[in-house]
Amino acid sequence: SEQYPLVVSTWPFLEAVRAAWRSVDGGSSAVDAVVDGCSACEELRCDGTVGPGGSPDENGETTIDAMVMDGLTMEVGAVAAMRYVKDGIKAAKLVMKHTKHTLLAGEKASEFAISMGLSGPTNLSSTESINKWAQWKDNKCQPNFRKNVLPIDNCGPYHPTKSLDLPEMCSNTAYMQDIDSLLPHVGLHSHDTISMAVIDKMGRVAVGTSTNGATFKIPGRVGDGPIVGSSAYADNEVGACCATGDGDIMMRFLPCYQVVESMRLGMEPKHAAQDAIARIARRFPDFVGAVVAINKNGEHAGACHGWTFRYSVRNSAMKDVEVFTVLP
Ligand code: SD4
């Protein structure tokens, strides 16, 4: 069908989508194209929140959550809170291809990745991540992810995602350009995660995710990135889904599993995406997040809550990547 191949990604990560498109248009498998696309984002350090040198945790360290899923075989590989190795999506693929496991975590994930030939140990900090952390650390009232603890200097307690009017800020282009100066909060930037879906020329579907997770998270925190069915899900029989947003909330609902299963039962991508987001919003009205759904016909649709979402699409009918905007 002329709907294949197809590449879809959260946010306007144009270079990542172009890299995946070159790969899949050249005949690569959906899995390999997803790895090429997400690797491009890691190398470019998309947004300063993917790959090395992004979002530091409470201790100032950058770690990586990543996952890849093959919708043909239903194999998954993932790494969580991986330290000292910059190639998150490649590490995830090594777990998928060379182990019977699905998810490796922490330093042991790093040891595995290095043993399989990825470079490391590497210091994942950058000047940018160190400065960002130092500024946060110096602020006695710094917002953080701890709750039910005595606030420092009576400054808290904080509810990070509640302290900002995100939809308004997202429609403000200054916010997009100069995120750090406007963000007194922790957690989500406007686009902290690449999650990508590809359908290759043979109609095989794959998804992948790579992220540094939430900024100033408690060390050890694992988000939705490496959780299958949460940040992404693929099934050749149906299609795929990619998610971004507040992983601490979203991973309780497996929104991407929900989207794919709803499409399996006959829902259109748009309805499936909206339904998955609505299920979360009913219980957590303040949550911030988005999903993008694709079916096997190459139809795509997004839904979001608490912010304006943008996702990228490339297929053979397009001259270059196109960006779609979804309003909450
Ligand atoms: C996380 N889902 O670790 C990621 C963050 C994200 O847009 O997607 N931000 O919670």
From TrEMBL:
Give the enzyme's EC designation.
Answer: 3.4.19.5
Superkingdom of this protein's organism:
Eukaryota
Mind telling me which residues the site (Cleavage) is annotated on?
192-193
Q: Which GO terms describe its molecular function?
A: beta-aspartyl-peptidase activity; N4-(beta-N-acetylglucosaminyl)-L-asparaginase activity
- What CDD domains does its record include? Glycosylasparaginase (cd04513)
Question: Active site at which residues?
Answer: 193 (nucleophile)
The UniProt entry's sequence similarity note says: Belongs to the Ntn-hydrolase family.
Name the UniProt record assigns to this protein = beta-aspartyl-peptidase
What lineage does UniProt assign to this protein's organism?
Answer: Eukaryota, Viridiplantae, Streptophyta, Embryophyta, Tracheophyta
